Every structure is written in structure tokens, then in C-alpha cells.
């Protein structure tokens, strides 16, 4: 530095001392400067004051020589002390050169700069607030300084500045937030500690409403929550907790919509191996739960994103129990927000002027649900939740949901092969709702394969499916189905049987379970009537026989079919007779099942006629096993009435003949012994006669009257149909055996 240069009003001694390498000499110079400035203050000579500050800044603090810079810093601090309360008039000139020194490569110089600024701020107090952003920016850099002395000095200055902000009511939050938003994304731990500490302080100041600007810093807060430092994470948890408390107190002033997507992002864990990510996910999920409960329908436009985040968490194990519970609460609360008003068209929505326009993102929701169903890695509880959502949407928004049915239907059918019974149950509920919703009525006939389906379907009694709809629909004049069974019902039955045909393991392991549940969800008569109608046209005769056997077992043994069995038992109505004929024609694919159907309906003569034809059939081991099972069923509670009818020998001769026919078919087996023993118990008809012959005749007439409705059926035609079906089966078996003989290398088992 040129010592001969004119630095007046600074004396040459002051200039020389400011440039000295010894701190004590620079301090003496600072005292002289303080004395000089005080004189100027007393004289109210602001021109000279500014001139002194300008010299100290440009010629010393911003000098190329380190000792000069140190002298300039202590001189600026001395000026501030001398100015006292008037320092606020010169703060820009005092602060800016000091802040420049914060970037100096010399750690000692950075420390002196910190010390100088501390003295300046201490004197000016609240007057420094207009320059807060500059001070904050500088301090945020020093917070990450590698030198411990510099860091310690910056912490003292930081505490002083926090005290000033806390006690003042003139803090400019609007101007500060952009800087805070920028610095909050720092990855340096010390900078993060600095940032989070300031947010914590500002949050506690009554006159500062930081909640209004939370959307701008919330993402950064969740980033800080993932810091490796336990102390930083703990402070950040406290800050977020305080914000959440405030949100609960004043929900009406909270900008929920602006923060919903931020929470969605942080609810999704990118790296599950990091423990900090678990904390982020749990915290954001907790916030999401509160948001949904507090904001209500405001969050509906973000529902697809929320579900994307929430659904996978539902399959977490106990290691993430808290996150799972929070996710479950989110899912439940969000589902409750969907109401029938979300099924209205845009024109209808505009007609309601008073209602706030909140649009449910139904297309997005369905896309998310469909994606989770297609993903083979989706957990069981998540799949169940997806199906619950679909069912809920079909109940609340049926008209809009049926726009997606064609795309959802294949995956819903595929889900029937799921390993979980609970998943299958929920899946069946969705499919049953699709098949029974009035919104599913179309102009096409219910037979979706183009066949002429004249099926008349019954309305389920007491069923919950379809009862919650108020949506208008085209009535039965445009579909063979009643409004409770729409055009998708027949499509469902066709595709279900097709799936059971392609997946024989599904038929063996879950077929009966699926059909029984459908009989509960829909009407058992509809299920059996439609399946019998479809099986009548089935080209795979082996599958048709197996399917009839399955349906027959369900019909004869399942508690769900009690009402249908009673309906078929007496055939007292034309409807029951029609149902019998429909079942019979398909049951002919399986001779033993056909006989059991005749036993159930008390068509004993026809059963006897059928058994007479068994001699012309190919009697295989499987055939005999089916006869064996039928004998076991005859001994079950289902056929109690049949066994009691053996007491009335004269009125039921064909029942006894039919049972003897089964006996003759059986080899000497346990079933043979069982049936033989039963028939030996049949009493002598003479012993069963009563003294009152007229009463006996009345009894015969009552039985004849009871079965009068049977005369409407052409039993000869039914027998001819049985012969035709069995001829087809015989032809197919011959073709198979012919193909086997054409391949000599194939071993016949």
C-alpha cells in the first residue's frame, strides 16, 4: 500500500498502524478511528463519516494485502461502535466490504471479518434487518467453514442475529423466503443445521407466519430429514412436528393442494435400505393422513398420486408397522371422500352452482389400480386394497367406471387365479358388482359371444350387490337380463368357464370355491342357469363333463344352494320345471350327475330309465368312482327325504329300481355294501298297509297331484337328448383312441 497517499481525515499514524501485522497496533488504530468518528458525529458531519468508511472499505478491507484487510475490518467495526444508534444510516457501506471478506482464503481473516460484523450488528440491532438476506447469505457460507474458530465466530453472530429477529416485528419474510428456498437444498451438514435452526426460530416468532410459505420449503425440509446426522434429523422432526400442529389448528388457511404432490413424492421410498428413508416415508405418510382428514375433497385431484404412494405400503411387514398403519388410514380416508356426486357429468356439475369444483381423477386412479393388479410383485394386502377400491368406485361412480370395464375385465378374471382366498373373494365381489350394476346395461344382448341367449335371470333376494344404485339404465327391453343382472353377467359367465377350461388346476383347486361365492353374491339360479346354458354349447366335451360334475357336487352339498335345492326338489312351478330342463340338458354331459339330478328332483322313473341306458355306456374306473360318490351322497342329510320315501314302496317303485340299478353297476366294494344294506332295510309293502284303505288311496292321490306338474315335460325327448350327448362323448373318445394308435411310440397308460 502507498503510505504517501492522502488518506485524510485518517492520520499517517492511523494508516501505518492499520497496516501493521501486529493485532495490538491495529487495535490502537481502531480506537483512534473510533475517537475520530465520534467527533464527526458530534459535529453532525456525515460527509466525513462516509469518507472515513469509504477509505476503510476500499483502501483497506478490500486491499490486496492481508494485513491491510485486517486493519480495514477492525476499523469498520470501530466506526460502527462510534456511530452507535446512527450506524443504521451507514449499514450498507459498513456491511458489504465485511461480507466480501467472508470469502477470503485466509481463515484468520475470515475470523476477523466475522468478529467485525458481530460488532456492527450488535450496535445496529434491528436496523440491520433490511440487510438480512445479505447477512444470512454470508452466515450460511461460514456455517460450513472448515476452520473451527471461524465456525465458532459465525455461531456467535448467528445467535445475535436470531435474537434480533425474534424481538423485532419488522422482519421481511417475503423477501427472505426465496433465499431460504434456494439454500435449503444444500447437502452440507453444517449448512443444513444452520438452515433448519433458522426455520425453527422463525416458526416460533408470533409475528412471522411461516406457514403461508410452507409449500416453498416443505420439499427441502424432507430432504434435510434424510440427513445422516442424528441431531439434524431430530431438529427437522421437531420443526415438521410444529408445522403439523399449526396446520391442525388453522386448517382453513393451509395451502393443502400446493403441498399434496410434495408429500406423494416423499411417501415413495427410492432406497429401502437407507434407514433415513424410512423416517422420511413415515413422516410424509403421517402428514398425508392429516392432510386427507383436514382438507377433505380438496385432495381428490391428487388421488392417483396418493394411491401410488400409499398402496405399496399396505403390504409392509411389522418392521414398518407405523408406516403401514398410517398408509392404511390414508387409504381409508381417501376412499371415503369418493361420493356419488363424482359420477356426475361436467354439465351436471356446472348446474350445481354452489358446490366447489373439485374433480376426482378417476382415469388416473383406475390406471394406478390396474397397474398394481398387473404387477406380479404386488403384495397381497395391496391387491386386496386395489380390489376394494374398484368395488367402491363401481358402487359410488358406476357410470364413469363402466367406461373402464372392458380394459379392467381381463385382469379381474386373471386375478381369480390368485394364491390368496381373500384376494379371490374381493375379486369376485368386484366382478359380481360389474355383472349386476344397472349402469352396465348395454344395447347388446347379454350373450357376448353372439349367441341368442333367451335366459331370464332372477333378482337376488336379500343380496347387497346392486342394491345401492340409483343410476337410471335401459331396462330389460334392451337386454335379456333384468336390471339386477346386466349384459356383463353373461360375458362374465362365458369368460369364467373359459378360464376354468384353460386352467384345470384352477378348476380343481378353486372352482367350487369360486362358484359357491358367486352364488352368495349373485343369485344361485342365475349362476346355474347361465352356466348350464353355456355348457350346452361347449365343444370340449371332457371339460363339459368335469364342469357338470363340479356344479352337481356344489348343487347337492353346498349350504349356499339350499334354496335352489328346495326349488328343484318338488318341481311345483313352471319356473322350477324350466330350470330342471335347462340343467338336465347340460348335465347329460355326465351320466351319473344326470341321475343324481333326477334323484334330487324326485324324477325316479326317469332316473331308472337313464340307469337302464348305462349298459350301453363305456364303464370306466372314473365312472364307477362317480357312482360310488353318489351312493355316499344318498346316505347324506341332503337325501334324507329320498331315504324316507323308501318306506312308501308302492308309490316309489322306480326309486327302488333305480337304486337296485346302481347296486348292479357297482363292483363288490364298500359302496356296494352300503347301498345293499340300505335296500335290505326297505320294508315289505304289505306290512306298511294301514287298516283305513281310503286314507291310503287319498295318500296316493296326493302324491299324484303333487307331481302333476311333471306331465308338462317330455321325458322321451329328454332321454333322446341324453342319447345324443352320450353319442358325441363316445365319438370323441373313439377319435382320441384313434389318434393314439396312429403314434406307435406313444405309450398308453
UniProtKB/TrEMBL annotation:
Keywords: Endoplasmic reticulum, Endosome, Membrane, Microsome, Repeat. One of its GO terms (cellular component) is endosome membrane. Residues 465-482 have a biased composition (Polar residues). Residues 504-682 form the Vacuolar protein 14 C-terminal Fig4-binding domain. GO terms for biological process: phosphatidylinositol biosynthetic process. Residues 462-482, 730-749 are annotated as: Disordered. It is found in: Endosome membrane; Microsome membrane. The keyword tRNA processing does not apply. Pfam families: Vac14_Fab1_bd, Vac14_Fig4_bd. InterPro entries: ARM-like, ARM-type_fold, Vac14, VAC14_Fig4p-bd. Belongs to the VAC14 family. Forms pentamers. Component of the PI(3,5)P2 regulatory complex/PAS complex, at least composed of PIKFYVE, FIG4 and VAC14. VAC14 nucleates the assembly of the complex and serves as a scaffold by pentamerizing into a star-shaped structure, which can bind a single copy each of PIKFYVE and FIG4 and coordinates their activities. Interacts with NOS1. Scaffold protein component of the PI(3,5)P2 regulatory complex which regulates both the synthesis and turnover of phosphatidylinositol 3,5-bisphosphate (PtdIns(3,5)P2). Pentamerizes into a star-shaped structure and nucleates the assembly of the complex. The pentamer binds a single copy each of PIKFYVE and FIG4 and coordinates both PIKfyve kinase activity and FIG4 phosphatase activity, being required to maintain normal levels of phosphatidylinositol 3-phosphate (PtdIns(3)P) and phosphatidylinositol 5-phosphate (PtdIns(5)P). PANTHER family: PROTEIN VAC14 HOMOLOG, TAX1 BINDING PROTEIN-RELATED. This is Protein VAC14 homolog. It comes from Scophthalmus maximus (Turbot).
Amino acid at each position: 500500500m502507498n503510505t504517501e497517499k492522502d488518506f485524510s481525515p485518517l492520520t499517517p499514524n492511523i494508516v501505518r498502524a492499520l497496516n501493521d501485522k501486529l493485532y495490538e497496533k491495529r487495535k490502537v488504530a481502531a480506537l483512534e478511528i473510533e475517537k475520530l468518528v465520534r467527533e464527526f458525529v458530534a459535529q453532525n458531519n456525515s460527509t466525513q463519516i462516509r469518507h472515513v468508511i469509504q477509505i476503510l472499505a476500499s483502501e483497506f478491507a478490500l486491499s490486496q494485502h492481508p494485513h491491510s484487510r485486517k486493519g480495514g475490518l477492525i476499523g469498520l467495526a470501530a466506526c460502527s461502535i462510534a456511530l452507535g444508534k446512527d450506524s443504521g444510516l451507514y449499514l450498507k457501506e459498513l456491511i458489504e466490504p465485511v461480507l466480501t471478506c467472508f470469502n477470503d482464503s485466509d481463515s484468520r481473516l475470515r475470523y476477523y471479518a466475522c468478529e467485525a460484523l458481530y460488532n456492527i450488528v450488535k450496535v445496529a440491532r434491528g436496523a440491520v434487518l433490511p440487510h438480512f438476506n445479505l447477512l444470512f447469505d454470508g452466515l450460511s457460507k461460514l456455517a460450513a467453514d472448515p476452520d473451527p474458530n471461524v465456525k465458532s465466530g459465525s455461531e456467535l453472530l448467528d445467535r445475535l442475529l436470531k435474537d434480533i429477529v425474534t424481538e423485532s416485528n419488522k422482519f421481511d419474510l417475503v423477501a427472505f423466503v426465496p433465499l431460504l428456498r434456494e439454500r435449503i437444498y444444500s447437502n452440507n451438514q453444517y449448512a443444513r443445521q444452520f438452515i433448519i435452526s433458522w426455520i425453527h426460530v422463525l416458526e416460533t416468532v408470533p409475528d412471522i407466519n411461516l406457514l403461508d410459505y410452507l409449500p416453498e420449503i416443505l420439499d427441502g425440509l424432507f430432504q434435510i430429514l434424510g440427513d445422516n446426522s442424528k441431531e439434524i434429523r431430530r431438529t427437522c422432526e421437531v420443526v415438521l412436528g410444529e408445522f403439523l400442529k399449526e396446520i391442525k389448528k388453522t386448517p382453513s388457511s393451509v395451502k393443502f393442494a400446493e403441498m399434496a404432490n410434495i408429500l406423494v413424492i416423499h411417501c415413495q421410498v427410492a432406497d429401502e435400505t437407507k434407514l433415513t428413508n424410512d423416517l422420511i416415508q413415515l413422516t410424509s405418510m403421517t402428514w398425508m393422513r392429516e392432510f386427507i382428514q383436514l382438507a377433505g375433497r380438496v385432495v381428490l385431484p391428487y388421488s392417483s398420486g396418493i394411491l401410488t404412494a400409499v398402496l405399496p405400503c399396505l403390504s409392509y411387514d411389522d418392521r414398518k408397522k407405523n408406516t403401514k398403519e398410517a398408509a392404511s388410514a390414508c387409504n381409508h380416508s381417501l376412499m371415503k371422500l369418493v361420493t356419488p356426486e363424482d359420477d356426475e357429468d361436467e354439465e351436471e356439475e356446472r348446474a350445481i352452482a354452489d358446490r366447489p369444483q373439485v374433480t376426482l381423477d378417476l382415469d388416473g386412479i383406475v390406471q394406478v389400480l390396474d397397474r398394481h393388479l398387473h404387477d406380479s410383485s404386488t403384495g397381497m394386502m395391496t391387491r386386496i386394497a386395489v380390489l376394494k377400491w374398484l368395488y367402491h368406485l363401481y358402487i359410488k361412480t358406476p357410470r364413469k367406471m363402466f367406461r373402464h370395464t372392458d380394459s379392467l375385465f381381463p385382469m379381474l378374471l386373471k386375478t381369480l387365479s390368485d394364491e390368496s382366498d381373500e384376494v379371490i373373494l374381493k375379486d369376485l365381489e368386484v366382478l359380481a358388482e360389474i355383472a349386476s350394476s344397472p349402469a352396465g346395461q348395454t344395447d347388446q344382448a347379454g350373450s357376448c359371444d353372439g349367441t341368442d341367449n333367451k335366459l331370464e335371470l332372477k333378482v337376488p333376494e336379500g343380496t347387497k350387490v346392486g342394491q345401492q344404485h340409483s343410476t337410471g339404465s335401459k331396462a330389460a327391453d334392451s337386454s335379456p337380463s333384468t336390471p339386477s343382472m346386466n349384459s356383463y353377467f353373461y360375458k362374465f359367465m362365458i369368460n369364467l368357464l373359459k378360464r376354468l377350461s384353460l386352467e384345470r388346476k384352477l378348476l380343481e383347486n378353486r372352482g367350487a370355491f369360486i362358484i359357491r361365492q358367486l352364488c352368495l353374491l349373485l343369485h344361485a339360479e342365475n349362476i346355474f342357469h347361465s352356466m348350464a346354458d353355456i355348457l350346452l354349447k361347449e365343444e370340449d366335451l371332457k371339460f363339459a363333463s368335469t364342469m357338470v360334475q363340479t356344479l352337481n357336487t356344489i348343487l347337492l352339498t353346498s349350504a349356499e344352494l339350499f334354496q335352489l335345492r328346495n326349488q328343484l326338489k318338488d318341481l311345483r312351478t313352471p319356473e322350477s320345471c324350466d330350470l330342471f330342463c335347462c340343467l338336465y340338458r347340460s348335465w347329460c354331459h355326465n351320466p351319473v350327475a344326470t341321475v343324481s339330478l333326477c334323484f334330487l328332483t324326485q324324477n325316479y322313473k326317469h332316473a331308472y330309465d337313464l340307469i337302464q341306458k348305462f349298459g350301453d355306456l363305456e364303464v370306466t374306473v372314473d365312472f364307477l368312482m362317480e357312482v360310488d360318490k353318489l351312493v355316499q351322497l344318498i346316505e347324506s342329510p341332503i337325501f334324507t327325504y329320498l331315504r324316507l320315501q323308501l318306506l312308501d314302496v308302492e308309490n316309489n317303485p322306480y326309486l327302488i329300481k333305480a337304486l337296485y340299478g346302481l347296486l348292479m353297476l357297482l363292483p363288490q366294494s364298500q359302496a356296494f355294501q352300503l347301498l345293499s344294506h340300505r335296500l335290505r332295510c326297505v320294508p315289505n309293502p304289505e306290512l306298511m298297509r294301514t287298516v283305513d284303505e281310503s286314507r291310503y288311496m287319498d295318500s296316493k292321490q296326493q302324491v299324484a297331484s303333487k307331481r302333476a306338474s311333471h306331465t308338462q315335460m317330455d321325458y322321451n325327448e329328454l332321454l333322446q337328448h341324453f342319447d345324443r350327448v352320450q353319442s358325441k362323448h363316445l365319438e370323441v373318445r373313439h377319435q382320441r383312441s384313434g389318434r393314439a394308435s396312429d403314434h406307435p411310440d406313444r405309450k398308453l397308460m
